[in-house]
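Report of the visiting student (M.T.), summer placement. My assignment was to run the structure pipeline on a short list of targets and document each run. The first record concerns Antizyme inhibitor 2.
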Amino acid sequence: MELVQRIGVPASKIIYTNPCKQIAQIKYAAKHGVRLLSFDNEVELAKVAKSHPSARMVLCIATNDSHSLSHLSMKFGASLKSCRPLLENAKKSHVEVVGVSFHIGSGCPDPQAYAQSIADARLVFEMGAELGHRMHILDLGGGFPGVEGAKVRFEEIASVISSALDLYFPEGCGVDILAELGRYYVTSAFTLAINIIAKKEVLLDQPSREEENGFAPKTIVYHLEEGVYGIFSSVLFDNACPTPILQKKPSTEQPLYSSSLWGPAVDGYDCVAEGLWLPQLHVGDWLVFENMGAYTVGVGTLLRGTQACHITYAMSRVAWEALHGQLLPAEQDEDAEGMCKPLSCGWEITDTLCVRPVFTPASIM
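After the run finished, the structure tokens were exported:
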């Protein structure tokens, strides 16, 4: 709340969607004019009624997220059976319930889960109307895919959602539709470059693909300066499988070895990736990971308290050329064209870069 208000977002545009809040956080919301809060149980309702009586509540309902990678309904969301009692208690406590929210969870391969949740939300809206609640907000949650090659494309999910909204919340019904599109927007926006800080070769007792090719059977363990308790935290809670891109393209004649990547923590759970077949790499070599924008650097910062990686911003040649005329005064265009190009263009035209491209430790680009 403090962060978004600091960058100029008005309190009327903020919804505090965590249905399990500390009392201090509820009081902070009340003090700073944030009135939209969510709940999914009687205890939370009572806390808000006491600490923020002017709050307008959004009832978070459970979903069928059995096929999702993240099962949020194990922790959050009221069942349809419990919604009416919660709405009745809100009325008795003079707490206004103004909408419904849900979250399918991340990585859901079944778009129809959204349609079912929207249908469930319609039922809760009708319950609320019967009890005198003026409900006008529907929050569709997040978890939408932000990468190419996802099991279900964003466009497919959007099509199902649009059809369900046309059926249950048609245009002109007076309901504001919200969605939490963080993952969709930022997943592909960041690329991580990180180097190998240590390695160890372990001889295998069992025959392997390498032995069949005439090489000594071994697996190679590579250590990185980031792990699952930092930038690669999505491995733990999002079932992510990071796959590195090698900075140096190997020749087809180089043998491949069974390899694994590990973070710096001194425990056996800090495994970033295993079961990889990579050429012989060395300490100081760089690995590149794409689609590292969601639940990575932000989570790592929270765990450490400081930002450990250096962020370099870049844009495509097409975007640069589209903005070029707006970014530089007309009289500077001619000189700038021959002097310097944005970093992302530099891989194509290093001879005209102001400086050659440089990777920095644990860089996010």
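Residues 336-365 have pLDDT under 50 and may be disordered. The two ends are 27 Å apart (CA to CA). I thank the supervising group for their guidance throughout the placement.
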